[in-house]
Design a protein that fits this description.
This protein is about 40% helix and about 15% strand. It is globular, with a radius of gyration of 24 Å. The protein has about 400 residues and is α/β, with parallel strands linked by helices. It has an 8-stranded parallel barrel with strand order 1-2-3-4-5-6-8-9, surrounded by 5 helices. The chain has 12 helices and 9 strands. The structure holds (3S,4R)-3-hydroxy-2-oxopiperidin-4-yl beta-D-xylopyranoside (XIL). (3S,4R)-3-hydroxy-2-oxopiperidin-4-yl beta-D-xylopyranoside binds next to loops.
């Protein structure tokens, strides 16, 4: 009897351990919400679909753990600010490449692509490029010469180390009535300044891909105007390889249907689509503009800055779901999408802490302020992995 009881006990223990093991294995396999494979990286999970990138600042790249994370997670690096005209050529003929070089060199030594941003933009650019000292537009020939010199010098410097350049940024007007934005380059050179910029870029570095980049171009009428611009560039015989949708989106805007229409409409022009500056604003927001000068001057009120210590769990979950929906659409169109770049690495460094209201605590990216992966990170990883299986 005693023996029988002993045997039963052993059998019971064996059974119990066995079921526990089965349960643990099942849990590991099913990777429930928020528990995706801890070792998975974005660049691995997206392999075969599109490149995954991030906008970075040079100072992040010499901090050990941060640099390791950037090297492990991303296929492509875009300088967030240090390759803009103001940084590269603040005064005529005075070029400063050292800070952008840090990013290009880091990318090269970690098997990452370097993406140039941006050669011609009306923001973060010195006035002298297209204006005289008294603020008048420069004569066309002078404006053209400055545009040519800037593009040629910059592209020659990075030649062989760059995958592609945002040649022109945000040239299309936001209003329904007007086609092109009224910029210093347009006032000096005329409406063909975009065509000219692409021509200069094409001869400066024939191996670099050339992109046109803008925000809110998934929606009409900006979408229609973008198609018009891309067709005009093609008709003018200049090479353009891709169109950038910045992707400064919000929790509830735009709809995934609108994002999808944007992608398919732009891709129908024959261009590759790049999502170039992805982030998801979770804070209260008036309007949808990503124009950097549309900033509220007054200090943020409590209502405008509601989550100063942490993002409530419910919103954290909503953000994860929003990223899942976005990546499902992107994966559906992976054949026409070349790259998906996040505008920053962690929440603490996001430009959305200061836009469109200064001094807020925002949570738009996949890593938190301590570089820990958020539920949104695991949701993106899982969405990418599910496509593979
Ligand atoms: C932003 C940077 O993230 C900020 O640090 C800077 O102060 C302003 O510019 N569209 C673009 C980017 O093309 O270059 C902008 O980057 C964000 C909007």
């Amino acid at each position: 009897m005693a023996k029988a009881i002993g045997t039963t006990r052993v059998q019971f223990l064996r059974l119990a351990c066995g079921s526990l093991l089965v349960a643990v294995i099942a849990m590991m396999k099913s990777t429930p919400a928020g528990a995706a494979d801890e070792q998975a990286t974005l660049r691995e999970a997206a392999k075969g679909a599109f490149l995954i990138g991030a906008a970075v600042r040079p100072d992040l790249l010499d901090r050990g753990p941060t640099a390791d994370l950037i090297a492990a997670q991303f296929d492509a690096l875009t300088p967030e600010n240090v390759a803009k005209p103001m940084e590269l050529q603040p005064r005529p003929g005075e070029f400063h490449f050292d800070r952008a070089d840090v990013i290009a060199d880091f990318a090269a030594s970690h098997g990452q692509q370097f993406i140039g941003h941006t050669l011609c933009w009306h923001q973060q650019a010195p006035a002298w490029l297209f204006q005289s000292a008294d603020g008048k537009p420069l004569p066309r020939e002078e404006g053209l010469a400055n545009l040519r010199t800037h593009i040629t010098e910059v592209m020659s410097h990075f030649r062989g180390r760059v995958r592609g350049w945002d040649v022109v940024n945000e040239a299309i007007d936001d209003t329904d009535a007007k086609y092109l934005r009224d910029t210093p380059a347009l006032r000096s050179i005329g409406e063909d300044y975009i065509i000219q910029a692409f021509k200069f870029a094409q001869s400066a570095d024939p191996d670099a891909e050339l992109y046109y980049n803008d925000y809110n171009n998934e929606l009409g009428p900006k979408l229609q105007k973008t198609v018009r611009l891309l067709n005009e560039l093609k008709a003018a015989g200049v090479r353009i390889d891709g169109v950038g949708m910045q992707g400064h989106w919000q929790i509830g805007w735009p709809s995934t249907g609108e994002i999808e229409t944007g992608i398919t409409t732009l891709a129908a022009t024959g261009m590759k689509v790049h999502i170039t500056e992805l982030d998801v604003d979770v804070l209260p927001r008036k309007g949808t503009s990503a124009n950097i000068t549309d900033v509220q001057r007054a200090a943020a009120t409590t209502q405008e800055n509601p989550y100063i210590t942490e993002l409530p769990a419910e919103l954290q979950q909503k953000l994860a779901e929003r990223y899942q929906q976005i990546f499902k659409v992107l994966l559906k169109h992976k054949d026409v999408i070349d790259r998906v770049t996040f505008w920053g690495v962690n929440d603490g460094m996001s430009w959305l802490n200061d836009f469109p209201v200064r001094g807020r605590t925002n949570y738009p990216l996949l890593f938190d302020r301590g570089y820990q992966p958020k539920p949104a990170f695991f949701s993106v990883i899982r969405t990418l992995q599910d496509r593979a299986s």
